[in-house]
Amino acid sequence: MAANQEKVIETRMGERTVDLSKVLHFPRGLIGFENRKEFVLLQLQEDSPFLMLQAMDDPGVGLMVADPFSFTTDYEIKVADAEQKLLQVEDPSQVAVLVTVTIPSGAPERTALNLSGPILVNYGARIGLQVPQVDTKYPSKLFLSDLLNAQKK
């Protein structure tokens, strides 16, 4: 078996070496970045629940993401048959779920998870897809401070 190929890319966090076997293909791109199809997940810090979903070809396109289930267990998504087909899965439970994270400048206490546009990843096939949710019971943003306050009660 051939050795994994690596590529050095520029990211929002500086230069990083990427294992090309870890690159994810997004056939539809991401909302706002439809022309970007190749991304990689980069760990921010060893113990951090946050990752950077970094475009392979544009250092300015990197979205902070997290597994929403690290913060709440009460989150369900709807995935249509066509989206499951694109992801090459028969059941949505076969994919990892990520959501984008927003940290407002100068207001880290307003850090929020975007629950309305989850990103699904089939790591086996290296395919990703953003699946906007409509008619959902969740607010578009879930503030981490609200979650922490609810846990203290």
From TrEMBL:
Source organism superkingdom: Bacteria
Primary location class: cytoplasm
Matches recorded under Gene3D superfamilies: BH3618-like
Keywords in alphabetical order: Bacterial flagellum biogenesis, Cell projection, Chaperone, Cilium, Cytoplasm, Flagellum, Translation regulation
Cytoplasm as UniProt keyword: yes
SUBUNIT field: Interacts with translational regulator CsrA and flagellin(s).
Protein name, as recorded: Flagellar assembly factor FliW
